[in-house]
Amino acid sequence: MYAIAKRSKLTGKIIPVKPLPELAKEALTEKLKVTVVPTVEAEAYNVGESTQVPTGRVIAVKGRVSCKMAFDGKSTKYRYVGVDKGGVQ
Questions:
Q1: Which band of pLDDT confidence, cut at 50, 70 and 90, is reported for residue 27?
Q2: Does residue 46 belong to any structural domain of this protein?
């Protein structure tokens, strides 16, 4: 997969225009047709139960993912989530 890139004003290196977690979620949903849901940590932060800000590098998915998405030594990790009667586990 390819991403639009630009030259960083700080380092001069070529970097993606969008952050890696956003690119990974986009690729998973649009190209690989995998359902992406918020992680437990992201949900806790969003409803005010936690002050820990999620990095976004762990992506909760409903389905199997065998590909690795990385840039400049940083990669995304996937967490499989199932659905129960109350919502996401």
A1: very high
A2: yes
In the chain, the number of structural domains is 1
Q: Is residue 7 part of a domain?
A: no
Q: Measured between alpha carbons, how far is 69 from 46 in angstroms, rounded to an integer? A: 25
Task: Specify the pTM.
Answer: 0.77
C-alpha angle 56-27-36 in degrees, rounded to nearest 5: 55
Which residues does residue 14 pair with via DSSP β-bridges, in sequence order? 7
* Unique residue bearing structure tokens 């840039």: 71
Nearest to 34 by CA among 5, 75, 76, 4: 76
Give me 46's structure tokens: 């969003």
Question: In terms of residue numbers, what domain contains 27?
Answer: 18-88
If phi over 0 gives left and psi between -120 and 50 gives alpha, with beta otherwise, what is residue 63? Answer: left
Neighbours of 78 (CB within 10 A): 20
